[in-house]
Design brief:
The structure holds 2 protein chains of 2 kinds. Chain A is an alpha+beta fold. In chain A, 53% of the residues lie in helices and 16% in strands. Chain B starts with 6 loop residues before the first helix and ends with a helix. In chain B, the strands form 3 sheets. A 4-stranded mixed sheet of chain B has the order 1-4-5-8. Chain B has a 4-stranded antiparallel sheet with strand order 2-3-7-6, with no helix packed on it. In chain B, strands 9-10 form a two-stranded antiparallel sheet. Classes of the chains: A alpha+beta, B alpha+beta. The structure holds flavin-adenine dinucleotide. Flavin-adenine dinucleotide sits between chains B (124-128, 133-134, 158-160, 210, 378, 381-382, 385, 387-388, 391) and A (259, 261-262, 266, 269, 271-272, 329-330, 332-333, 336). Chain A: Keywords: FAD, Flavoprotein, Oxidoreductase.
Chain lengths: 377, 400
């Protein structure tokens, strides 16, 4: 395996980092968060212009034909800057669901619009009782003469604010697989309630009360397409958290060198040296797990990949909660303040853990997979 | 050893419970309780307690307190937390009060005690400074004698509730010439004195309890000095050595566990209740065991304190470390138990709701939970950081 970035990947990483350093200073970010809109459309346009929204989309639909590795590189840098624009929700989850499960006509029509940032679609798959796991779907789609009528609700739709359409997972009576449908954001009978998350991003809760959807709005793929896209989502999130951990550790190391107590920089205390060493080790284990997930997506069969992704989701989220929590601890009081950066990394880690299924849930999935594997011996 | 509960404690619990049921107004119960209650509530609650003769539950009889034993105090705290009464003013009850009882002049007691008992004066603690946190003895806020007044200049930080307090107890440097511990004095200052500015600090739990407090030529009557000039450090050591048994804040943990059980049997995951998920049940069981162990540790520290056994200090430090880590674990678990909604930033629990705004999903149950989780990141920082506590333990137990 080659863990070095090739020159194109290096260029990509550099360009995202430059943007984050320049346009996404903590002050600029705070202003964006305070504006309570889940980010700026100006930034989104720049993401599009720089090709970040199309990096991992197929070339025939206006993408750059890159891979999940490109997505991970971008996400890691966005994680360092605590970027709040809905890269995960719109550029990854919705776009990849469409790429994996859309009809040729849908892809031809919509992917170029997603790639150039002129449209946003959000993926509405999670429900209160599903807690991030795509197979639990209680939202109903009943067939009628014009297509389908939707009834039910979706929680925590990432990137829904400012989206023109949603991809909604539904259960059609009698159908084995779940059904994915494109739903216009202004549909009659669709109630949208926006709410902020702890990390300054925004989501919507969607309530469908007899929403009419045309038959040609049905995607080809079902659960398999959703899983393929969630694989991208989990990797994106892991990469974001590796970036968040990197930055937390950098900030903390800097603080240990400057903060004086008892007449010395607090970095002189061995307890703190060992703690930051543990934080760094935790991050590198997490980074390695991210690499394992990337390798698994490239090489493994479905079942193995599914297990590795769940393992990665849980391990990286736990690592991030530890590292970012300790970032606060080593800062003392200043770490507790809203005006100081370090606490916001912890908030991001908490939110990431809850999105796309919590750590316990993913570990339980791994345990179940292990049980059936070992019992079959 | 004898593990039979003290029967007199059971009847005492009954007495407290009866008081809470029969004599406490309904709107003073069912409050959230992880930080100090609002000024108005603290004051009202203090009046209710005082009218019942319980205005100072932690103090000796000779000081006007209840004279309760440490185990009785734990029972009282437990029942109040379970009922969700407002908090008292922890600064005066647990920190300053014992200091005044020990070191204050009769005039100082006459000035402050009635207001404390009647719930007319709230206090804040002015110890930490921007450059002096764990290394408190390095503090720089100066107080210079000018006739019969001290003139105070400097800055304090992390002053919890300074914006809702009437008085502050302050550590100041009165002599820059001597060894740093020897030059510190303990002053009581009226927050309305000209020259004091309080600036809010918003914390990551989306609340305002922290402040910066600035002193610009603040003139404080010299009679407000507690103890002798330069005695501030030994008074502070006395103050910080109080109440080891209560640092774990166990009653609040028990309340969180109660909420956790509630969520376990009301929230659904897939087709099941949360408690039917083996991984959740396991986690709950682990936390239950830890709460039980920490609960027993609290009893042990209480028993040691009761006998003035100096070992209560080391065990108390361990309790501080593990109890506060447990607070972090339980409050994180609560938020995780909310599933998707754990990520939602509900309206600040300390602010009134806009009736025009529709409720967010699960708001009535979940509001405030994440705020508690974020606030508890501070539990391992304030009151002596876990790192400093660990050094104390190693030194006291093993002379390292
Ligand atoms: C929510 C909250 C409320 C507070 N309320 C009050 C209040 O009302 N009044 C008041 O006076 N103060 C208050 N404080 C201040 C609190 O007491 C200090 O934050 C605490 O003493 C730590 O000091 P610091 O923040 O300066 O951190 P620092 O002392 O700078 O510590 C930074 C890091 O270095 C570590 N460290 C420092 N020294 C050592 C050492 N010798 N060995 C190993 N590690 C070390 C610490 O453990 C920490 O991890 C409050 C703080 C918080 C967070």
């Amino acid at each position: 395996m080659d863990f070095n970035l090739n020159s194109e990947q290096q260029l990509l990483q550099d360009s995202v980092r430059r943007y984050v350093d320049k346009a996404y200073s903590f002050e600029a970010r705070t202003a964006l968060v305070n504006a309570k809109q889940g980010g700026s459309t100006g930034n989104w346009a720049i993401f599009a212009e720089n090709g970040w929204l199309m990096a991992a989309l197929p070339e025939e639909y206006g993408g750059l034909g890159g891979s999940l590795i490109d997505t991970a590189l971008i996400a890691q840098e966005l994680g360092r800057g605590l970027v709040i624009e809905p890269y995960l929700g719109c550029a990854v989850l919705a776009a990849q669901t469409l790429a994996a499960g859309g009809t040729a006509a849908q892809k031809e029509r919509l992917l170029p619009l997603l790639a150039d940032g002129s449209q946003r679609i959000a993926l509405a798959y999670s429900e209160p009782a599903s807690r991030g796991m795509p197979e639990t779907v209680s939202l109903r789609a009943e067939r009628d003469a014009n297509g389908y009528v939707l009834q039910g609700r979706k929680s925590l739709v990432l990137g829904a604010v400012g989206a023109q359409q949603f991809i909604v997972s539904a259960q059609v009576s009698g159908a084995k697989d779940i059904t994915l449908l494109l739903v216009d954001a202004n549909s009659a009978g669709l109630k949208r309630q926006a709410m902020p998350l702890h990390d300054g991003t925004w989501v919507e809760e969607l309530t469908f009360d007899g929403v009419q959807v045309g038959a040609d709005n049905v995607l080809n793929g079902g659960l398999a397409a959703l899983r393929a896209s969630l694989a991208h989502g989990i990797v994106t999130q892991c990469a974001e958290l590796v970036g968040a951990m990197e930055k937390t550790i950098e900030l903390t190391a800097e603080y240990l060198k400057t903060r004086q107590q008892f007449g010395v920089a607090i970095g002189n205390f061995q307890a703190l040296q060992h703690r930051i060493a543990d934080m760094a080790a935790e991050m590198e284990v997490a980074r390695s797990m991210l690499h394992a997930a990337l390798a698994s997506v490239e090489n493994d069969d479905d079942a193995t990949r599914q297990k590795t992704l769940s393992a990665a989701k849980a391990l990286v989220c736990r690592a991030a909660k530890f590292v970012c929590g300790q970032g606060i601890q080593l800062h003392g009081g200043i770490g507790m303040t809203e005006e100081y950066q370090v606490g916001h990394y912890y908030k991001r880690a908490i939110v990431a853990d809850l999105l796309l299924g919590g750590s316990d849930r993913h570990e339980a999935a791994c345990a179940a997979a292990l049980q059936s594997e070992l019992r079959a011996r | 050893m004898d593990f039979h509960p003290d029967p007199s404690l059971a009847s005492f619990r009954q007495e407290v419970r009866q008081f809470l049921q029969t004599q406490v107004p309904a709107d003073l119960k069912g409050q959230p309780r992880s930080t100090r209650s609002t000024r108005e509530q603290v004051m009202r609650w203090q009046k209710v307690l005082n009218a019942h003769g319980w205005g100072a539950p932690y103090w000796a009889k000779k000081d006007g307190g209840t004279g309760w034993s440490v185990p009785q105090i734990l029972v009282f705290d437990d029942e109040c937390a379970a009922a969700g009464t407002p908090t008292q003013d922890p600064f005066v009850q647990k920190l300053l009060g014992p200091v005044l009882n020990e070191f204050a002049t009769p005039e100082q007691k006459a000035e402050h005690m009635p207001a404390v008992f009647n719930g007319e004066r709230l206090w804040c603690q002015g110890f930490s400074e921007p450059g002096s946190g764990s290394d408190l003895a390095s503090l720089r806020t100066r107080a210079e004698l000018d006739g019969d007044h001290y003139v105070v200049n400097g800055q304090k930080i992390w002053t919890s509730y300074a914006h809702e307090s009437d008085w502050i107890f302050l550590l100041v440097r009165t002599n820059p010439e001597v060894k740093k511990q020897a030059g510190i004095s303990f002053l009581l200052v009226d927050m309305k004195t000209p020259g004091i500015t309080v600036r809010p600090i918003r914390s990551i739990d989306d609340s305002h309890h922290l402040n910066e407090t600035f002193f610009d030529n603040v003139r404080v009557p010299a009679k407000n000095l507690v103890g002798a000039e330069g005695a501030g450090w030994s008074i502070t050591k006395f103050l910080l050595n109080n109440e080891h048994a209560t640092t774990a804040d166990l009653p609040v943990q028990k309340r969180y566990m109660q909420q956790l059980r509630q969520l376990a049997t009301t929230q659904r995951v897939g087709g099941e209740l949360l408690i039917d998920q083996p991984e959740f049940a396991l986690k709950l069981a682990r936390l239950d065991a830890e709460v039980q162990a920490i609960g027993m540790m609290v009893q042990r520290v209480a028993a040691m304190e009761q006998e003035h056994n100096p070992a209560s200090h080391t065990l108390g430090s361990m309790l501080k470390i593990r109890g506060t880590e447990l607070q972090q674990k339980i409050s994180e678990c609560l938020v995780e138990a909310l599933g998707d909604y754990g990520a939602v930033a509900y309206p600040d629990p300390h602010e009134d709701l806009d009736p025009a705004q529709p409720l967010l999903p699960l708001q009535e149950v979940a509001r405030g939970m994440a705020n508690n989780m974020f606030f508890h990141r501070a539990s391992t920082i304030y009151g002596g950081t876990s790192e400093v506590q660990r050094s104390i333990i190693a030194k006291m137990l093993f002379q390292l």
